[in-house]
Specification:
2 domains, five-stranded antiparallel β-sheet
Length: 194
């Protein structure tokens, strides 16, 4: 007997038939399946073989799939933008506990992390320049915007004309740096004494 025959079969493998009755006495069991919540990049079908794109979203794949769409979804199709569970193929993750690793996700996570670092640096530069145009330090600007967001303050009052600025852009950079959510990015938050 090979070592393969001594191991219990796993999901994705056929259960061997023994030559004698009950040679392989497999009983019901519970299993660990590595899962991850993903957002669909395109229309997907339960049980469909999928991978992830460069943005970490799920898309169909016949060449290099790494798992399947949750086969238990009964609603039919998953539409772009909807979240669902991806079941990763058996024996493809490393360090399976309740926190696992997979080489494809690691590469995409590193790419996204690097992009976030680039975005944060660009946002930091924007806020530093914007704060300078307002006669503030960057940390003071962030503190004041946080107060406005929390309703503790209504405006940043200036003793000079308001420089040209786009509140949507300013709040977007604020969100990237602070991680705080701004629902109304159109809100002007600077006034002048004119």
């Amino acid at each position: 007997m090979s070592t393969q025959e001594h191991q219990n079969p796993t999901i994705g493998e056929l259960i061997p038939n023994g030559k004698e009755e009950n040679q392989y006495d497999f009983k019901r069991d519970a299993i660990h399946i590595a899962v991850i919540p993903l957002v669909a990049a395109e229309i997907l079908i339960p049980g469909q073989h999928i991978t992830i794109n460069d943005m970490g979203q799920a898309c169909g794949s016949v060449l290099a799939p790494i798992g399947i769409v949750d086969p238990y979804i009964m609603e039919g199709k998953i539409k772009p933008g909807q979240k669902f569970w991806m079941f990763l193929y058996p024996k493809t993750v490393t360090n399976l506990r309740h926190d696992w690793e997979h080489p494809v996700f690691k590469a995409v996570e590193e790419k996204i992390t690097n992009q976030v670092k680039i975005d944060k640096k660009a946002s930091e530069i924007y806020l530093i320049n914007f704060a300078g145009a307002l006669g503030l330090t960057c940390s003071n600007l962030i503190r004041r915007m946080t107060s406005i967001l929390g309703g503790e303050e209504d405006w940043i009052h200036l003793n000079f004309d308001i420089p040209d600025y786009d509140p949507v852009e300013a709040w977007m950079h604020f969100e990237i740096i602070t991680g705080l959510n701004v629902e109304n990015k159109n809100k002007n938050f600077i006034s002048c004494a004119c």
